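Thread title: Can someone regenerate the structure for this chain?

I was given the following input by a collaborator and told the matching structure tokens would be attached. They weren't. Posting the sequence so someone can regenerate them.
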Amino acid sequence: MNKATKNRFDAEMTDEDWFNLGKSDAWAGKPKISPEQDAQGASMYDLGYSEGKIKYPPTKTPNTSQ
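Best answer:
Regenerated them for you:
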């Protein structure tokens, strides 16, 4: 995941950057907004967002029943 792409602010973002951004947006409860001009970036963002929805953020732990 090292392909660098440019986002709307002309900054280079790798596939991993898009993936992590999607995941962090999901953890923060933000709406899913994929990049429109970059199909590869949008795909990685969507993948990260989906994973973030099913996994807990590193700052929270799931409640366990004891």
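Strands lie at 4-6, 12-14.
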